[in-house]
Amino acid sequence: MHKCGLNFRTVGFCIKLLWILDAYFIWLQGWLTGLKAGDDAHQLPTIAVVASYDTFGAAPALSVGSDSNGSGVVALLEVARLFSLLYSNPKTRGQYNLLFGLTSGGPYNYNGTRKWLRSFDQRLRESIDYAICIDSIGSWENELWIHVSKPPENAYIKQIMEDFSSVAEELGFNVNLKHKKINISNPRVAWEHEQFSRLRVTAATLSELSAAPELLEKTGGLIDSRHFVDEKAIIRGVKLVAESLARHIYGHQGKNIQIFADNSNLAVNPYYIRSWLDVLSQTPRVAPFFSKDDPFVMALKKELEDHTDEVNLQREALDGMFTFYDSTSAKLNIYQVASVTFDLLLLLVLGSYLIVLFSFLVITTRGLDDLISLFRRPPSRKVKTA
Ligand SMILES: *[C@@H]1O[C@H](CO)[C@@H](O)[C@H](O)[C@H]1NC(C)=O
Ligand SMILES: *[C@@H]1O[C@H](CO)[C@@H](O)[C@H](O)[C@H]1NC(C)=O
Ligand SMILES: *[C@@H]1O[C@H](CO)[C@@H](O)[C@H](O)[C@H]1NC(C)=O
Predict the structure, then answer these.
(1) Quick check: CB of 187 below 6 Å from ligand 1?
(2) Centroid of ligand 2 to alpha carbon of 271 (angstroms)
(3) Closest residue to atom 5 of ligand 2, CA basis
(4) Residue 63 lies in a domain
(5) Could you list the residue range(s) of the whole structural domain that residue 31 is in?
(6) Pair 316, 359 in one domain
(7) Which of 1, 148, 210, 243 is the most exposed, fewest CB within 10 Å of its CB?
(8) Would you say residue 331 lies in a domain?
(9) Mutation test residue for ligand 1: of 24, 109, 114, 318, the one with most atoms within 8 Å of CB
(10) 361 and 269 both lie in a single domain
(11) Do residue 364 and residue 284 come from a single domain?
């Protein structure tokens, strides 16, 4: 996909190509700690809520299937806010830890998510009951999809599905399950939860999309087909996630109890959602080029700190990097940096070119015979024996 012509943009890109060596994934996490019954030492189970903050925003011009306004991030922040209200009161604090993770590197095979997961110690990883990754939920009407890698018969998957579909039914829409096995020997993933699945952590992705968007490198097309992010869709998505988690945490399965009912003080706040949507839609979020104290990253961190504890920000260098974005324009540019193989190939091509050119010149100037004689072994002088 080399589009290099010589102009100022190209020069800029080449400078950025050098700069890419300095690219990082930044992730943020925050905890809401559950209430331990008694003083027992055993660890509480954890539910993780995850969203990739650059999947959508980094690609305002991503061609297929993303809500450019970061609906997943907005939803995660609102879910964190709602549960922080519940968890601030010991009477309504659940016996589950809640872990909120904002990851980056979505367009890079969710490699940032993988790095985040690898930072967990084994005890933490094993304590995760399940993780719910919120993908784009900003422009749907009456159905959402839950993508999983474990078979639908799995007890956890069954439970997640039961919780989500019963809540969805009460709210007047459908959630459908889509199962796709992961291929352990292939590092490519289509959804964020697959990075969890690769480490044997139960996880699901909630999305309005029934199939994963094409990989960024493959599409290359840069026109966003979606322009409309519906606030109401996000509100319904938040309700679905929050109610379903609450049902799991408080064991209200099968009961029609709405904790986050409209008009209660635990209702989803449309102003909060709108204001974050505005921030997200005005911020170019090109993760590899974020510095640790980027204002947007700082804003996310502060927001997590307002609602959760032990907020932690980590920055990790990117590896296997071969795509990058032009962060200065709204258009997304993808370039492939030539690999070593490419260099070798180039050398080979240049080499053969020179040989052909040399032969051509010799033939035209001195004739074919001269050329042949060049490559022939010099006639050995036969020593006559007497
Ligand atoms: C993600 O990481 C893997 C393994 O380190 C690497 O092979 C791959 O190229 C990375 N993908 C992207 C898109 O950066
Ligand atoms: C899994 O991935 C490997 C490596 O990419 C590939 O060779 C193999 O065919 C894949 N298996 C399935 C079942 O798709
Ligand atoms: C993002 O949201 C704003 C309103 O919050 C809207 O005006 C804008 O068109 C949206 N942009 C995209 C690309 O969806």
Answers:
(1) yes
(2) 46
(3) 186
(4) yes
(5) 24-321
(6) no
(7) 1
(8) no
(9) 109
(10) no
(11) no
